[in-house]
Amino acid sequence: MTTVRSPRRGARPAIALLLVGLLLGGCSPRQMVIGGIADELAAQGQSAEPDLDLAREASAFYLKLSESILRQQPGHRPLAEAVAGGFTQYAYAFVAGEAEQIEARDARAAQRLRQRAAKLYQRAQRHALQALEQEHPGFARALASPQPQDWPKLKPEQVGLAYWAAAAWGGWISLSKDDPEVVADLPLAVRLAQLAWAVDPAWGDGALTGLLATFEASRPGGSQAQALRWFDQAIAQSAGKSAGPLLGKAESYALPAGDQALFEQLLHQALAIKDQADSPLTLQNEVMRRRARWLLDKTADLF
């Protein structure tokens, strides 16, 4: 995943003041205040918070409040994107990741966490697709059409929503291998990512390209050569600032290929990335560095 969001410092007092106005206002002022809260929550965006435990604690408050406001402002695209991204990243960084780490000592607990992560991914995908449907009635039906000329046309400002919908969809599918109906939607998730990439291939500093690479590497009949080209393009697009594409290539290409040397090289590259002050990638990179260290500790078991 590309980014892990958490509320900015000072966000809660600002939101609290808006909530007071919400409670005191009438109908029209109430909608104005809700709109203001939606704007503020959507603007939280990426955080420079390096403390993952603090980010995890803050995320629950942020996501629940944001989701509640989104229900009252379903047409607020930036908030829908923030909510979809937030749930996707929370599932990846704090739930599915924990399941992997405790698998060896508590398989039942790990399974419960995977089930929870799958539901969070599903929730994220639903929010993103609902927002796209709001702006493009019939979006889901068009996406599922067997005729390419019927596929939906994305606008540049919708690429973020499409990315999070596809990423969450992929996460949900990866944890639902025993549910054929969910797995059968993989071509739709891939198609949505491809439609977004056609509009803005550089979106997310390589995040979208990396997602396509991961899909290509993992889908039945996928081309490993094409996946490698996309991984390398994603790494180039990140310009050495993001650990995400490096982890993606390590886990989805080097590991299945049995290339231990490349696997370790990529993980060490990820660990060597130094974040600039107040970089929006700080939290994401810290998630990836923690995962890289864990994977390096497990190398002997993986190869």
Q: What would you note in describing this structure?
A:
With 303 residues, this protein is mainly alpha-helical. 72% of the residues lie in helices and 0% in strands. The protein has 15 helices and no strands. α3 packs antiparallel against α4 (77-102).
Summarize the structure.
With 303 residues, the chain is mainly α. It is built from 15 helices and no strands.
Name the features:
single chain; about 300 residues; about 70% helix; 15 helices; mainly alpha
Computed CA radius of gyration, to the nearest angstrom: 19 Å
Structural class, by secondary structure, is mainly alpha
Q: How big a fraction of the residues is strand? A: under 5%
Morphology call: globular
Largest sheet properties: none
Order of helices and strands: HHHHHHHHHHHHHHH
**Please, how many helices?**
15
Would you report the number of β strands?
0
List the helices and strands and how they pair.
Layout: H1 11-24, H2 27-42, H3 52-72, H4 77-102, H5 107-135, H6 139-143, H7 159-174, H8 180-183, H9 186-199, H10 207-218, H11 224-238, H12 244-257, H13 260-272, H14 282-297, H15 299-302
Helix pairs in contact: 1-2, 2-3, 2-4, 3-4, 4-5, 4-7, 5-7, 7-9, 9-10, 10-11, 10-12, 11-12, 12-13, 13-14
